[in-house]
Amino acid sequence: MKQSMTFIPTLREVPADAEVKSHQLMLRAGYIRQNTSGVYSYLPLAQKVLKKIEQIVREEMERAGASELFMPALQQSELWQESGRWYSYGPELMRLKDRHGREFALGATHEEVITSLVRDEVKSYKRLPLALYQIQTKFRDEKRPRFGVLRGREFIMKDAYSFHDTFESLDEGYQKMFDAYQNIFSRCGLDFRAVIADSGAMGGKDTHEFMVLSDIGEDTIAYSDTSQYAANIEMAPVVETYEKSVEEISDLEKIATPNQKSIEEISSYLNVPKEKCIKSILFSVDDRFVLVLVRGDHDVNDIKVKNLYGASVVELATAEETLANLHCVHGFIGPINVPENIEVIADHAVAAIVNGICGANEEGYHYKGVNVERDANITQFADLRFIQEGDKSPDGEGRIKFAKGIEVGHVFKLGTRYSEAMNATFLDENGRTQPMIMGCYGIGVSRTLAAIIEQNHDENGIVWPLTVAPFQLHVIPVNVKDDTQKDLAEKLYKQFYDQGYEVLIDDRKERAGVKFADSDLIGIPIRVTVGKKAAEGIVEVKVRKTGEAFDIPVAELSEKIKQILGN
């Protein structure tokens, strides 16, 4: 491709609204342009990279036994109502009506569509297992689009779905997809971890997220410092044990604590460690209110609360709900004398607190000398807090450390969540009707593109891994007005093209410095510069990743390129 004939609008300055490197570099290097908040056009270079990623995905999906199809982005509301997600999915689902007033959604995901498709066509266990996938644009009305294509309202996704007659078959299909994802992200040149995860609005259980390690990641990974254990911080169980102190049990006493609301304020005001304080948080759990207690230096993990109750929605109670149910304002909530309609649960660490401090459910007052087994009506103790760095690893090996990650893939065992709701059944070998057992497997293709850049760049621009680079070679004649340089550059360009390489030639009438800067910015792995030594049949070869550069006789160039690419 001739650079003068393609569309690569590079920028010298960093756009003011671009916060992270991938966003900055994709704008500066002419890969994307914003149309509106969270919506981007992918320019020719980005489109080439996306197609490389998609090809890797297709090859690994085929190897895993999945067939490609393409489903509509416009989905009728009736399907979402069948699954029960039309009302529960949330405001991220983009809803619209046609001219006849019928309700539709722009596809955020395709569980409903694929389930309806397969239920109408597959009736026997003999047709199972079956795995289908697509690569398609998805739509989610993100409240706060940010970080360029890492969190947008329109994005490219690969979603796959598998259908099985037994849970053993699901396990086998899940492992195939898990292995395929390992291969996909490895081939894309990413440093990633597969972590235990929560299924969220998708439903199902036994899920893993594939996280690209990055300081700008919005997810926190909890991992062992000595083993392979890794989990999203929301899903990491706490296996710590707690011992009570041997101090004498005190009487319960209400004390004035004017304007002291936070754990930090109470700890300082009463001169007690945060570990002696009890943090009380009121949650709305589906159709009930639950008061959750954790130790003052810990934080409530709402996902664990959700999983404990098998709830669909867990939200912090509003100030109005707190006042109506506990007759108190935030900052003074506690577990003593709580109305009977409110269930009280506590983290295991709370049971070990002796003579603690908690809110008195009265503004400006706390209790001291609190011993919850004596003073509060605790329904149950459970693991309800976030794991912390330094805690024991859940697998019993080592201690927990944290890292930030960008989620690029997610695999789920959905079970019969959708098939039962939507009556997707088959006849087993005994002629009995059974619900299909499902798996779901997603990859953010456009997000993967950005994640690759986050891990592969330097101060001069993008450094593409060879497997996904838009071009393999960048031929640059330093002076296109010099016929010797121009002719040799065009000869090499044709030679490389005929040899099957993807090659870009910078035939623009620009200064050499501009060409070199743009070349580094867009990140093509190998640059071949045709300069003053062209008359001697010598060119310069530079490796973008290492910065290594050397002069090569044209006669030896093809062999040298093969060697570099082979390494």
Features:
567 residues; alpha+beta; BirA Bifunctional Protein, domain 2; YbaK protein; 3 domains; 29% strand
Strand proportion, as a percent range, falls in 25-35%
Over all CA atoms, what is the radius of gyration?
29 Å
Q: How would you state the average pLDDT, rounded?
A: 94
CATH topology description of the largest domain: BirA Bifunctional Protein, domain 2
The count of DSSP E runs of length 2 or more, i.e. the number of strands, is 31
Largest sheet: 9 strands, mixed
CATH architecture of the largest domain: 2-Layer Sandwich
Q: What's the overall geometry?
A: globular
Domain Aminoacyl-transfer RNA synthetases class-II family profile: 38-465
Family: Belongs to the class-II aminoacyl-tRNA synthetase family. ProS type 1 subfamily.
EC number: 6.1.1.15
Subcellular location: Cytoplasm
Your description of this structure?
The longest helix is centred in the N-terminal third of the chain and has 21 residues, at 167-187. This protein is an alpha+beta fold. The model has no long low-confidence stretch (mean pLDDT 94). Strands 3, 7, 8, 9, 10, 11, 12, 21 and 24 form a nine-stranded mixed beta sheet that branches. The protein has three domains: 11-190 and 410-453, BirA Bifunctional Protein, domain 2 (2-Layer Sandwich), CATH 3.30.930; 253-382, YbaK protein (Alpha-Beta Complex), CATH 3.90.960; 471-566, Rossmann fold (3-Layer(aba) Sandwich).
Quick gist of this model?
Its EC number is 6.1.1.15. The chain has 567 residues and is of the alpha+beta class. It starts with 20 loop residues before the first helix and ends with a helix.
